[in-house]
Amino acid sequence: MCGCSHGASAARHLVVIGISFWLGTIAVGLVGCKRGPAIQPEGAPILYCSVDEVFARDILARYEAKTGRTVKPIFDSEAGKTTGLVRRIQSEAGRCGADVFWSSEVFNTILLARRGLLTPYDPPSAVDITPRYRDPEHRWTAFGLRARVIAFDSEKTDGDSLPATWEAYASPEWAPRVAIANPLFGTTRGHVAAMFALWGPQRGEAFLRGLADEALVTDGNSSAVRMVLGGAKEVCMTDTDDVVVARRRSPSLQCVYPDMGDGGTLLIPNTVAIVAGGAHPDQARQLVDYLVSAEVERLLAQSDSKNVPVRKQLRDELGVTLPAETELSYDAIADAMDDAVQAAREILLK
């Protein structure tokens, strides 16, 4: 255009009109998005997902092949597992963001529900899931459990010599041998909150003080496992799926299930929920129906993540044993989350 002199004034006029039209279109889109579901009744639902991408994509591919419907997934990083997506849902409240939230844990899902950011829905495919794994107000459904464990290299450490309780790993004898993921994020965040819920704040803080200046804090569970395999630490606090995946490369990696103090370890489920204000409510319900189905639980149990089904019938079918589980309710753990996170920030991450 710069080299053309004929009709320059008209051209400039057209450019101004074009820019004005473009800006107006964006403004209408942004205003319309606040009106909610009626704006985009068609199209693919947006899924926020903190489950490991390699496992989630396989499930979503099967859904798309089975139904002919597409999904637009957005994943989170290992270091910011779940927490980053939760903050995004909070910041997008009232605007067109996610339609469905598939989380690798339950505690932040509960907090989103309490803030009114999830839409109640009782998926018919979850009728055989027990009440412990279903929100009484139908705002989320849980499935596919992972356990919190201590991982170790059996070529270097005798599993029978490991402490039987979680609290013992913060002792002067064991704390220098421990790697732990950043407790501000992911399942470690929920695990520390469970300790505060069960033990009370004094014992919870004592546990963190025992680890402070001694334990190695990593950016995620898989990083903690690598510290054990690399010899930097003898044991790490992690999840069963991280152990299973790493064991494919390092068969000597093993794990034990320490007792929280009431007879079992913490089992953390996946959760699925419909996000309030999403633009595709019908498609969201269809996707949720599939994700909480027995078919998906079976696929996750048979995948490298080895999630334990919440459905007893499936566990019996697959020959999977449910580890001894703490009696703590997930709501009680969510109640303790703020205090636990604050203490972890001030004591362990100082």
Compact description:
The chain has 350 residues and is of the alpha/beta class.
Q: What does this protein look like?
A:
With 350 residues, the chain is of the alpha/beta class. α2 links the parallel β1 and β2. α5 packs across α6, α5 packs across α13 and α6 runs parallel beside α13. The N and C termini lie far apart (59 Å). Strands 1, 2, 3, 4, 5, 6, 7, 8, 9 and 10 form a ten-stranded mixed β-sheet that branches. It contains 13 helices and ten strands. The chain has two domains: 160 residues, Periplasmic binding protein-like II (D-Maltodextrin-Binding Protein, domain 2); 135 residues, 3-Layer(aba) Sandwich (D-Maltodextrin-Binding Protein, domain 2).
Shape: globular
For the largest beta-sheet, the strand count, sense and barrel status come to: 10 strands, mixed
Helix content: 40-55%
Low-confidence stretches: 1-41
**At the third CATH level, what is the topology name of the largest domain?**
D-Maltodextrin-Binding Protein, domain 2
Total strand count, please?
10
**Straight-line N-to-C gap:** 59 Å
CATH superfamily of the largest domain: Periplasmic binding protein-like II
Radius of gyration using CA atoms only: 24 Å
Q: How many separate domains make up the residues? A: 2
The whole-number mean of residue pLDDT values reads: 88
What is the CATH-assigned architecture of the largest domain? 3-Layer(aba) Sandwich
Question: Helical element count?
Answer: 13
Structural class of the helix and strand makeup? alpha/beta
**What portion of the residues fall into strands of 2 or more residues?**
5-15%
Q: Could you spell the SSE succession in H and E letters?
A: HEHEHEHEEEHHEHEHEEHHHHH
In CATH's first tier, which class of the largest domain applies?
Alpha Beta
